[in-house]
Design brief:
This protein is an alpha+beta fold. The protein has one domain: Alpha-Beta Plaits. It has helices spanning 19-35, 70-76, 81-87, 125-137, 153-156, 161-166, 184-198, 218-229; strands at 6-14, 40-48, 55-61, 90-104, 113-120, 145-151, 175-181, 203-217. An eight-stranded antiparallel beta barrel has the order 1-3-2-8-5-7-6-4, surrounded by four helices. A hairpin with a 6-residue loop joins strand 2 (40-48) and strand 3. The longest helix is centred in the first third of the chain and has 17 residues, at 19-35. The radius of gyration is 17 Å and the shape is globular. The model has no long low-confidence stretch (mean pLDDT 91).
Length: 230
């Protein structure tokens, strides 16, 4: 998730008897549809550990303005029949739009795990940026990458036809930290480092770890389309 300025995060449970159908929809229709919107770079889906939401879905974009664009809002307000069906099976959904403040680590890396920390904090954003860099850059710790995001509250609150179906809204916390890690132990170590750094200013902290289930890039879809046309 490094190297991009816009980020959409969607946490949700899915009705158990619909999960395979949901995964088919997300892989075969929804992610390709979204990646056809100008400025969308990549779509991912993660599975959660017991005790948290079943799934975490996210998109990275060329900038936060993409998530307010006419093309994206048009898609949100014209859901396909399959999308309408799938969204009716979402439970306890949270969808939040973010702008990236600071990144640590190499761009374009791949990692099978992601740690997500959502929290509130009254300290200046620059202070939090420094805390993230210090936590992830020293003493032999080497996560694949990490980033600090801030909520775009106005864009997150826009009502759309899709939102009316799943009946969820944005998360309550202002900040998100995402750390990509090679294994679960590394993700947990990153969480502990960050929580120590952020204490005592961080409030309402939510911590979760997910493993990567699918990752699709817009450039790969375009390359496949060009190959099919040859």
């Amino acid at each position: 998730m490094n190297g991009y300025l816009g980020f959409m995060g969607f946490w949700s449970d899915i009705d158990q008897d619909y999960q395979l159908r949901y995964q088919e929809w997300h892989n075969c229709e929804h992610i390709p549809e979204r990646l056809g919107i100008p400025g969308f770079i990549e779509g991912r889906r993660y599975r959660g550990a017991p005790g948290g939401p079943n799934f975490f879905m996210c998109y990275v974009t060329a900038g936060p303005e993409v998530l307010r664009s006419e093309a994206y809002l048009s898609a949100l307000n014209r859901p396909t029949p399959w999308t309408q069906e799938a969204l009716a099976h979402f439970r306890n959904p949270t969808r939040t739009l973010y702008r990236k403040l600071r990144a640590v680590g190499p761009e374009g890396g791949y990692a099978p795990y992601v740690l997500l920390l959502r929290f509130d904090d009254e300290r200046p954003a620059e202070t939090l940026e420094n805390q993230v860099v210090e936590a992830l850059s020293g003493n032999g710790f080497a996560a694949v990458s990490g980033a600090l995001y801030e909520v775009d509250a106005e864009a997150s609150s826009i009502m759309t036809a899709e939102r009316r179906i799943y009946a969820g809204g944005p998360g309550r916390q202002r900040y998100l930290i995402a750390i990509e890690a090679l294994d679960r132990a590394q993700a947990e170590e990153g969480a502990e480092r960050l929580e120590r750094r952020l204490s005592p200013g961080a409030r309402d902290l939510d911590r979760s770890i997910y493993w990567l289930e699918t990752r699709i890039r817009a450039e790969d879809l375009r390359a496949s389309a060009r190959k099919d046309m040859q």
